[in-house]
Design goal:
182 residues, mainly beta, Lipocalin, ten-stranded antiparallel beta barrel, 59% strand
Length: 182
């Protein structure tokens, strides 16, 4: 009985401490604010030597008072070299998103010409999931799409990443991050 009581107390405390995360309604972008760190497991359909790899991930989200936000994510990849001696490569991306007239939809402030090799990006917030889409078109007209879904789950953030090339999934990654500071 004490285990049930302790569970109920912990659940109530989490609900009181994180009320906006616990509701089924869309949360504000401000609840994503902070430095999040964790690890993800990546699965690739295009790599023979590195079909499954571990990645260290770091995300910083900084909302502004007017509802825009900047996000920086860093990923330490281990998918080059040999399986016995993988080479670590750190990739970093920073994007700033500006509100649109649509609720909970933002567009990248960078803009650009997708047909000249630039990427286009947009973000969407639905319930507790912030989704960022990054799309590019190759010189021959093929497309690459990366979809980053970051979902708040109590005190954690779950990452669900998918990389698609012309409709075929070529890589996925799933992971969990914890908040290190606002």
């Amino acid at each position: 009985m004490s285990k049930v009581r302790n569970f109920l107390i912990a659940a109530l405390a989490a609900f009181l401490v994180f009320p906006s995360v616990s509701t089924a309604n869309d949360v504000s972008i401000s609840v994503f604010k902070g430095d999040w760190r964790g690890n993800a497991i990546s699965e690739s359909s295009v790599s023979v030597n590195f079909a499954i790899t571990s990645r260290d991930i770091d995300v910083n989200i900084q909302p502004t008072d007017d509802g825009d936000f900047t996000i920086t994510w860093r990923t330490l990849l281990r998918q080059k070299g040999t399986p016995e001696d993988p080479k670590e490569v750190l990739k970093e991306t920073t994007l700033t998103f500006v509100k649109t007239e649509r609720p909970n939809v933002w567009h990248s402030s960078q803009g650009g010409d997708i047909f000249a090799g630039d990427t286009i990006s947009w973000a969407q917030l639905r319930k507790q999931t912030l989704t960022i889409y990054v799309m590019a078109i190759s010189e021959v007209g093929d497309y690459d799409m990366q979809v980053y879904k970051r979902t708040l789950t109590g005190v954690n953030m779950e990452l669900d990443f998918t990389a698609i090339r012309d409709g075929a999934v070529r890589r996925t990654a799933k992971g969990r991050l914890i908040l290190f500071g606002k």
